Amino acid sequence: xIQVAESGGGLVQAGGSLRLSCTASGLTFDDYAxxxxxxxxxxxxxxxxxxxxxxxxxxxxxxVKGRFTISRDNAKNTFYLQMNDLKPEDTAIYYCAAPExxxxxxxxxxxxxxxTQVTVSS
Length: 122
Fold this sequence. Notes:
Oligomer: single chain
Shape: globular
Helix content: under 10%
Order of helices and strands: EEEEEEEEEEE
């Protein structure tokens, strides 16, 4: 019933920016914290960022802190990941995720999108 879907990936040069979007359905969106994860080829999935129900509280992995910004628009059932100063090591498939329960951050992903590819060239 619950579905999430991300979009906005692409190819960008190092130092560039990209904004990812994730739209959720089947849940009361403004009750849920939401998160972004990524997975590079041959590597384990990595948590990137989390945002609470209202957007008043956010958290980031050390690798993206200061460069990425998570936000949400509850009226659109959508949240975003603004990625600035992209680096080649940011290259990965990015996934958005919803938790099973309407809890706050951090979350364990229960419902996942199909992923959107972000490729950062040197």
